[in-house]
Write a structure and sequence with these properties.
- A hairpin with a 5-residue loop joins β16 and β17.
- This protein has ten helices and 22 strands.
- The protein has helices at 2-14, 16-27, 37-50, 115-129, 152-159, 208-224, 270-280, 319-332, 347-350, 378-394, and strands at residues 54-57, 63-67, 72-79, 100-101, 104-106, 136-143, 167-170, 178-179, 181-182, 184-193, 228-229, 233-234, 236-245, 255-264, 286-290, 292-296, 302-306, 308-309, 312-313, 338-339, 358-360, 375-377.
- The chain folds into two domains: 2-182 and 311-394, Aminopeptidase (3-Layer(aba) Sandwich); 184-296, Alpha-Beta Plaits (2-Layer Sandwich), CATH 3.30.70.360.
- Strands 1-2-6-3-7-21 form a six-stranded mixed β-sheet, covered by helices on one side. Strands 10, 13, 14, 15 and 18 form a five-stranded antiparallel β-sheet that branches. A three-stranded antiparallel β-sheet has the order 4-5-22.
- The mean pLDDT is 98.
- The two termini are 14 Å apart.
- It is elongated.
Length: 396
Amino acid sequence: MDDLYSRIKILAENYQDYTANNLSKLVQIKSLSTKEKEVQLELKRQMDEAGFDEVTIDGLGNVIGRIGNGSKILAIDGHMDTVDNGNPDNWNFDPLGGEIKDGYVHGRGTVDQEGGPAAFVTSGKILKELGFDKDLTIYFVGSVMEEDCDGLCWKYIIEEDKIKPDFVISTEPTNLNIYRGHRGRMEMHVSFHGVSSHGSAPERGINAIYMASKTALEIEKLNHNLPRDEFLGKGSITISEFVTDSPSLCAVSDFARIHLDRRLTWGETKESALKEIEQLIEGMNAKVEVLNYDEEAYTGLRYGMEKYYPTWKIPEDHHLVHTGVRSFYNLFGKKPAIDKWTFSTNGVVTNGIYGIPTIGFGPGNEVLAHAPNEKVAISDLVTASAFYAAFAFELD
């Protein structure tokens, strides 16, 4: 077995240029949510070239490559959509250049999170070369629309493609550590309805802006008093948008709306978070609601879900975590750190909704996600390529 891990490690190192060049090609294709078609075709081409047993694109646009045909199913997931580039003046290089320089691949999506899929394509190539024949089916998934709606892709894969894995590895950036959970989140609107009057006589009306402003101050207080979990940290809430309306600028506002970004720690739920806001607006002509995502994928399919993404974590002594630690140790002779993400991932659906044991292991540091000058170390890609292949052999 030690010889097997040495061979995996050597192959991953030998293929470092292959992996970096594949990632560079992906980065050069702009791939915002719902507009991933071209990058998905390139990922499919890479999987076919690597010798995967089967590569398909489903109705939502996810690329699904398969190796093996065993009774147990492992899925290795990475989303292919990215956020936009932002202010070009903040970049020291072309965000869509995919430049390979000084041991890094540079550009938008290298960390968040096309580096993971580029690495798992190489893993598939390694598995095929080593004659992988365990009783395991591995699905390598280049998923879509995650930046817009975490986990929607996996809702479709499980409910429509009828693929429900026994285990999932997310390739979101973990700085080459093993992650076992993160806080959940939800998006809410709170709408306030006032009564307009002439601005010269505001006492005749009911100002929706004042209602919203008073609530906003209470939400600021609420944020400081939310519960804390020893592993996941504290829940949080912030207002990310404030919209108002009135018949004119010489009138009392009769409508206001705030958008809430709510992060949920362990033990917090959609119902508990809604109740907190309902108590703040009691006695006001106001309503709180959880939003829905309903957009058209690049395939033309319209698909959606509620924008509630449950908190999830698996125990540190879980079989899947132990498998990851053993795989890493057998490759590199040391144990990885075990931690959590700050942000949200497709794990909100695979584990948070469907209870599928999920861990994270990915190249790059999440502090570079959505940031200018995003880049990933080629050595990280090599490590990740080796890890995914080793994990497939180690899993039982």
